[in-house]
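Reviewer 2 asked us to include a model.

Predict the structure of this chain.
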Amino acid sequence: MKLANKEYRQKAARVLGAWAQLAPAEKFGGYSLMEFQRVVAKSDGHRQTLTQLDITYIETLHFRDEADVEMNTATLEVVDGVKGHELFGANAAIYKAMGYVPRDERRSGLTRAGISEAAVGLMPAAVS
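Predicted model (structure tokens):
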């Protein structure tokens, strides 16, 4: 069964505490207490670095989101500037190239539902 990093650290802390309290002068597994403390400190240093990176990552995400809102506002202002420009306007090629539908290419959106062929066959015959 694989141990998670948190469990590794907890186990090392337990070993370190017992060793420091009950046999600080002894060597175990080729390590003195000081050598083992250095190994644990190295791991702890990387943990602190990861914590700082997590904080930096979250902060950077926040700043990116704020910058995206500012960028979107500026984008909309630029597009509005193209629409309102006396040489370009809402029918200009640049407006279309920016991903918008020029006014003279828009449809009204009004549709009238026609009678489908299937529905025509279901209608009662006209009486003459």
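The chain has one domain: 5-102. The first helix runs from residue 5 to 22. We have added this to the supplementary material.
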